[in-house]
Amino acid sequence: MEFLNNLFSEITGFLGIDRLMEILSAGDYAAFKTYDGITSLIFPIIPLLVLLELGLSLIYKKPQTKVYKVNFLIYVFNRIVGRFIAIAMVVLLIGLLEPYALFHAELTWYWFIYGYIVWEFAHFLYHYWGHKVRLFWCLHATHHAPEDMNLSVTYAHFFLEAPYADTIRTAVCILMGVPPEMLFAIMLIDGTYGAFIHVGENLMKDGRMGFLNKIILTPSHHRVHHAKNPLYMDTNFCNLLLIWDKIFGTFQDEDDKIEIEYGITRKMDSGNFMDVYFGEFVALYKDVVNAPGLKNKLMYIYKPPGWHHSGEYQTARQLRKEFIENNELKK
After folding, report:
1. Membrane-crossing residues (predicted)?
2. Is the pLDDT of residue 84 over 60?
3. Do residues 230 and 323 lie in contact, with contact meaning Cβ atoms separated by under 8 Å?
């Protein structure tokens, strides 16, 4: 009976309906007017879309079985590890850094816009470094390993990536005066939309979303981000607002002439949990061990993926630059 109760708890937890069920069973419908009640309605959206997407993939006979299987294993593994590692990084950083904030924004709509722009900048930093620093790429690569795009990719993360991301995003926001209440609201919106942009073609064939494609980051933009095509590599680091990608020159629209190839450039078995989850750490370890001298060993850790001490290497930036230059020569 205890096993069944635990299984039921895990299922409701995955679906995000545990708090919703508590409110409905208590008959406390007024709770839906509170932040807690609103989140109880929002959390189930993505898990239910995942199940809908999986159902449609079976109908369209495009099940992407390997992707769903590995991402499910990653979700289960992270849940088990999470029981023993509880990192209240956000709360800890708020307490430590709030006294050092440059100023304190007010809870108004215009300050909310400011807060979201700051959050997006912090997200850009974490995400950019996750692609440009080899050690951070080891944390982030699990998310890029799937060779197809669907909502289950949302759950494909190395368990230490969230603390790394939250450290940067929370620190920047708090020091720039974003109040905790506003920060939590932004995190809710960002987390929900950040999951949605992983929607696959089985559920949304054209991810451009019409005119919104020129205003915000759409599933189309994020599909580009997950691609390993030279033109698409290391682009579109933002999550909702396009502002920072436009400012820093990392924005890339989807090109209809270039079919997206998902995954990472390292040769790997995307259906093997161990390779997907730990493969980049193994590759980094081998490079560090085989590198001559302490300087080269350290450079493998903080240089971009693809860097090699021999000087014969191609990083994502070089590959993209060469592709663009060659394309321009053909025109």
Report:
1. 41-60, 72-97, 109-129
2. no
3. yes
Span 115-141, pLDDT tens digits: 999 999 999 999 999 999 999 999 999
The alpha carbons of the chain give a radius of gyration, in whole angstroms, of 21
Instruction: Judge whether 275 and 74 are in contact, CB under 8 Å.
Output: no
Label residue 131 left, alpha or beta by phi (over 0 means left) and psi (-120 to 50 means alpha). alpha
Give 45-52's long-range contacts (Cβ < 8 A, gap of 24+): 45/16, 45/192, 45/196, 46/16, 46/151, 46/154, 46/192, 46/195, 46/196, 47/14, 47/15, 47/16, 48/15, 49/151, 49/196, 49/199, 49/203, 50/150, 50/151, 50/152, 50/154, 52/203
- CB count within 10 Å of CB 230 equals 19
Predicted local distance difference test score (pLDDT) of residue 313: 79
Amino acid identity, position 243: I
Q: In the chain, helix, strand, coil percent, each to 5?
A: 65, 0, 35
